[in-house]
Structures are given as structure tokens and as C-alpha cells.
Amino acid sequence: MNDKFDALKLKNQVCFPLYACSKELIRQYGPYLKKLNLTYTQYIVMMVLWEQETVSSRALAACLHLDYGTLTPVLKKLEHAGYLTRERSAADERLLTLKLTDSGRTLKQDAAKIPPAIADIMGLTPEEFQTLYVLTYKALLAMESKE
Fold it and tell me: Class assignment of domain 28-112?
């Protein structure tokens, strides 16, 4: 017999395994990112720059689902490390343009080893991995559209 509180049981919540998996997944990145002297947030910033080379801070924040308060110190540290440059637009001082440096490009070579290692740790087949990716993004986009 179902009682009215079944939906509140932890085992019936999709949020909990997503939360726990996310925490564990980021923890698994730790040893790999430590070798690169990057945090997870710095790593995802670098992934965008490795793909685009140049990006506005506004576009980066939207892409990573981060606010400026979180992003600004990360960008400053990456700039201090020599991986990117930050330049204000002459046309609009509010616009910050981020550009990948040669040191940032070099870091990409070592980082290329991380995705296959993490995929192996997750224990999913390529098809399962793709399904998880698609469903996770579908849920994310649906929730964002409700805001």
C-alpha cells in the first residue's frame, strides 16, 4: 500500500542520485586536475576556451551556468597562471573578452587524457554514457525554461 509520503522517500528521489553522482564525479576528477594544477571550475572554463579560443565573459557564464561572482575569481586565477588573457572591450567596457594563451593551449595536451579516464571510471558503455548525457541535458534545459 502506498502512503501519501512515498514520494518523500530518498529511494524515490531522482535528485539524490544525481546529486551524489555529481559530487562523486567531481571528486574523481581531483587527481587528474591536481596534476594540471586546476580546480574543476577552472577546468570547465578551459574546456570552453580550448574549443572557442576567444569568448566573452557573458557567453562563458551562460555556457557554464555560472554567475559572475563565481566566475570572476576563477578567471583571475587562470589569467595569473598565464592560461588566458582578459581584455575590456573598447566599445563597451562592461564586456570582457577572454583569450586563450599559448600556455593554455599547451595545457590542453595533458588534459586530453582526462575524459577517457573519467568515462572508464564511470563504468558505462558508450551508448549508456550518451543516453545519460542526453537525458541530463534534456532535464536541465526543461528546468531552465521554467525559470
Answer: mainly alpha
Close Cβ partners of 132 (under 8 Å, ≥ 6 residues apart) = 124
**Distance (Å, rounded) from C-alpha 146 to C-alpha 65?**
15
Kindly state the cell numbers that stand for 9: 522517500
| Predicted confidence (pLDDT) at residue 81 exceeds the cutoff of 90 | yes
Grid cell for residue 53: 579560443
Grid coordinates belonging to 27: 571528486
Q: Are 105 and 24 in contact (CB under 8 A)?
A: no
pTM value is: 0.89
Residues in Cβ contact with 86 at an 8 Å cutoff, skipping those fewer than 6 apart: 57, 75, 76, 79, 96, 97, 98
The residues spanned by each domain of the chain are 28-112, 123-147
